[in-house]
Amino acid sequence: MSYIDFVSDPTRRCAIVAHRGAWHGAPENSLAAIENAIRIGADIVEIDVRKSADGILFLMHDETLLRMAGIDREAESMTMAELQEIALRADDGGEDNPLTDQRIPTLSQSLEAIRGRIFADLDLKDRSLFPEVAACVRDLNATAYVDLKTTVMTPEHVAWVRAQDIPDLPFMAMSTFTRQETSSTLAVLAELRPFMSEIRFDAIDTIADNREAFQRAGMALWKNTLDQANSGTWTDTAALADPDKIWGRLINAGISAIQTDQPEALKTYLEERAA
Q: Are 28 and 105 in contact (CB under 8 A)?
């Protein structure tokens, strides 16, 4: 099944998106974190993409290696050979986490590990990498199971995406919906017809009240519940305390993909909800 077919299936459960891999027990954005996401039954793994000094695409969220390796140097200033000599810290890094045997993977290595086992959301830390990432995906025959994404809120954003020439790749828009602007935002998105949108919103009722409009647009909705400021009150910490209040309300409003740093807990909740 392709990524688009999976997302468009009206009978599926809410998709579990493992943020930077399932990193509890493995360094984030590592091959081990990807394997953990597959093992626990996540549907999608989100990974962050950068480019090395010698032009190789690799996985790393931060600009520097300080948090994940204890090295105060920009990751993109190093060659891929240098990067793969570096041991990654456990979990989400930081000085209290020990070094592991995991190394920084290339995007190609990651896509080979993912092939046919899980879908992948590619978060490009520099959107100018779109052409190179698309070329890598095509070279590895991975177009059916990964997405590319960027912000789409204006006609200028639409023009930029069209200029990337990626009609063969699943495209996800990143958009904000407010009660006053939902119709106009959907009109902009209709120019691209993304298969899914990673959303922010002013209030949950904005999403619930426009559920039919989103369905007519043929666009699934993805929401982050990460413990980050841009999640607002919709956080993993709040979901662990009261999953019905966070994950349940999002699902009831029509959101069908949730990105989380707690994929195992979300899976347990979805199983209990379906029982």
A: no
Phi, psi angle pair for 123, to nearest 5°:
-100, 100
Nearest to 29 by CA among 99, 129, 123: 123
The predicted model scores a pTM of 0.98
Fold of the domain built from segment(s) 3-58+107-274? TIM Barrel (3.20.20)
The mean per-residue pLDDT over the stretch 3-25 comes to 97
List CB contacts of 152: < 8 A, sequence separation 6 or more.
Answer: 158, 161, 173, 174, 175, 188, 189, 192, 194, 197
Q: What angle in degrees, to the nearest 10, is found between the helix axes of 107-114 and 130-139? A: 50
Residue boundaries of the structural domains of the chain? 3-58+107-274
pLDDT of residue 89: 98
- Separation between Cα atoms, residue 130 and residue 165, nearest integer Å: 9
Among residues 150, 129, 5, 7, which one has the least CA distance to residue 57? 129
